[in-house]
Design a protein that fits this description.
Blueprint (H helix, E strand, L loop, with lengths): L4 E4 L1 H15 L4 H14 L3 H5 L10 H5 L6 E6 L2 E8 L2 E6 L2 E2 L2 H12 L3 H13 L3 H15 L14 E4 H9 L15
Antiparallel strand pairs: 1-6, 2-3, 3-4, 4-5
Helix pairs in contact: 1-2, 1-6, 1-7, 2-5, 6-8
Length: 189
């Protein structure tokens, strides 16, 4: 790892980015961590959403907080509908019908990012703060695709580490969330 470059898989990058965006949209840190994990877990289902097959109605944060304890509902984050539930501790994303505990997400992120987590979180928070919440919600996933680690295409890229360049995140921020991407630099799915 160089100071601004981290060797890491895409999943923890998406999980951290989703948590940062959720915080920017008004969720507290613990809620955001839980929702970030829920989003990363549903990423494989995102293709159906992009095709317009499934379009849930997003709820306002005040509506979410007004739900009964234990009642599942949908939260819209980065263009995806996440199952969530209110608990005594706040809103939690749901995986396998159970609330996602933020402590497990924080441990996961620390394990994947190591000592680079504070620096990576700071870079992502600065990018998220550079946009108003509505624009961030609309463009957030596309922004992620502009800086996510480059990995090989297809099966060989599954689970592979790539380079997360914090300088690239700063460049996206400096351009107001817009960056020129050469064809050779386009992220691989």
């Amino acid at each position: 790892m160089t100071p601004n470059k981290i060797q890491i898989n895409r999943a923890p990058v998406l999980r951290l980015w989703a948590a940062v965006v959720a915080e920017r949209l008004g969720f507290n840190h613990e809620e955001a961590l839980s929702l970030g994990k829920a989003l990363a877990g549903l990423n494989a289902q995102s293709k159906g959403r992009r095709l317009g097959i499934f379009k849930p109605t997003p709820m306002e944060l005040k509506e979410v907080r007004g739900r009964e304890r234990g009642e599942e509902f949908q939260v819209e984050l980065l263009g995806r509908a996440l199952s969530a539930v209110n608990t005594d501790e706040g809103v939690r994303g749901v995986a396998k019908s159970k609330p996602i505990e933020p402590e497990t997400v924080e441990r996961y992120l620390k394990g994947k990012f190591g000592e680079a987590l504070p620096e990576a979180r700071k870079a992502l928070m600065e990018l998220a703060s550079a946009l108003d919440p509505d624009e961030l919600e609309q463009r957030g996933f596309g922004l992620h695709e502009q800086f996510w680690p480059q990995i090989p295409e297809g099966v060989s890229g599954w689970g592979a580490n790539g380079e997360l360049d914090l300088g690239r995140i700063a460049a996206v921020q400096e351009r107001g969330g817009r960056v020129r991407v050469d064809v050779k630099d386009r992220p691989h799915s």
